[in-house]
Structure formats: C-alpha cells, structure tokens
Amino acid sequence: MNKELLEKSLEKFASTKVKDLTQEQIDLYKCHPLVEKLKLTDQEFTTFFNGIKKMVDEQTLCDQIPDHCVNQFAYHLILTRVGNKLVYKSIPCPKMAKLNESRSFAKNYLYRSFPNSFLNLSITRKYFGDSTNISKKELIKKLSKLTKNPNFNYGIYIYGAFGIGKTYSTIAFANDLARIGKKVAYCFVPDLVFNLKQGFDDKEANRKNIQIINKFKHADVLFLDDIGAEKANAWFYSDHLMVLLNSRMQKNRPTFFTSNLSFEELQRKLVACCGQISGNRITQRIIATTNGQKFKLEGPNLRIK
What we know:
Layout: H1 3-13, H2 23-30, H3 33-36, H4 42-47, H5 49-63, E1 75-82, E2 85-92, H6 94-102, E3 109-112, H7 126-129, H8 134-147, E4 157-159, H9 166-179, E5 184-188, H10 189-198, H11 203-218, E6 221-225, H12 234-250, E7 255-259, H13 263-274, H14 276-290, E8 294-296
C-alpha cells in the first residue's frame, strides 16, 4: 500500500469515538496484543480510545508493508503503563528493528547495485533447493560448496540467456558470503560504465568513481554482473577493466562474472573493440580470476509469466 494512502487512512479514523463503533469492532481493539497487555479498565479504554485506535491502526497498517515503516522516521507512538499511569511513548518500529538486525551483514558490502529487498536472498533457502531446474541446482551446489570453503581464491564465469536467474542466484550467493564476514562488492557493469562516463565532465562524480573502483580492487570477492551488455569502447576495457582485473589477479582475489555472452563471444567482443593484443590480455585476466571456471546456466526465462 502507498504510504500516502496509509497516512490518509489513519487521518480518516483518527477522530472515531467508541460510541461510533459496533461491539464487534470494539472487541477487535480490546483483543489486540498492544492493548491486551495494558490490562485496561473500561474507563481507561474509553478515555484513551483515540490514542489506542491510532496505535493499533498504525501497527496494523505498518504490518502490511514488507520493507519500510508507515512512519517516515520509523518510530511508533504507543500507549504504555508506568506505575498506575498510562502515558504515550515513542519507540522504534519493531518490524524495522527486526529487519535491520536480520540485514546487519549488509555492512560487509563495500558496494552493491541491487536494492535492499534483495538482501533477504540466500542460496541456502529452501526455494532454491526445491528448484526443478537441474542446471540451476548444479550452480547452487557449486556456490554452496564455496561458502563452506571461505578461503577459495577463484570465481566463476556464469553465462546464459536472459532472465534465467544468473543475477538472482549470484546476489543470493553474495549475501551468504557477506553473512560469513566476507567483504563483498556487487556491480552491475552497464551502470558502472554509465557512471564513469558521467565523470568525464564532473570532478566530484569522477572522485566517487575512483573510490568505487578502489573498493572493487580491495573486495574479498567481486561480482561483475551482466558484463558484455555495456555500451563501451576501449577506454573502459583498457583503462578500467584491465587495471581492475590485473589488481585482483595479482592479489589472488576471486571475481565472479555473469553474462548473456559465452566466454568466447565476450572474447570476440573485446578483441573487436580493443584489438587482438589488448582484448586477449583482458580475457586472460578473466581466466586468471576465475581459474578458468565457466558455467552455462540453462532454463526458462523467469521474467515471462
């Protein structure tokens, strides 16, 4: 539900009185956990009804939103008993507090180009294991094995058609690595190219881009998502990708790639763009950071329903 609609819903019923409600509606408020624990007398319930109703309605509406609070600053005003008195108190949204705790591992991301809603993904979750896609099961098995051997020093070049779950699966894997303490960077390559172009005429943007690239160099594990889909020329491949991969190769740090192109197709693109020598030098560094591991993910386009 839209936040604006939620706020309007609260305003609509803010002035409702006990006498305006049916007994069934009154009982719903009295039986709400936030109200039951106060052990109110009938007089207290009537006296504080406006606050009670707002508290309950706000909590009910907030529970309908999966990943943010109904209130801008994620605080709820609740009625609480202090001694023999009933007072109002502002508390952090319980849902957001729990959600933030479950996402505490996100601090291990040096950079990520996906939204918070994807932080709940994990390759150990049942829905991955229940997949009927044999190819995806094999990929998940490979990735799961790496989480049990956190000192691995090579990535995988994962390729396949559009919409079959390459990004989804690698984000889940990246989350699990962050959960075990790995410093992770997850980059959507076309966005990186776009941001680098913005830095041509913007010194501040260029400064931020340099900081981001340095994070990619120092991440324990780097993910370069959708490589080959970017619109770039030799300046990106030779001046940025080559330098980045060379740094990671020298430090023996693993890099994972996802692409719609097979490795051979990507190599041909790089050679056509950068020339035989530079193109092959870049592909050799992809091989070095993945230990030559390639995986073709197959299956239906999950974006078509």
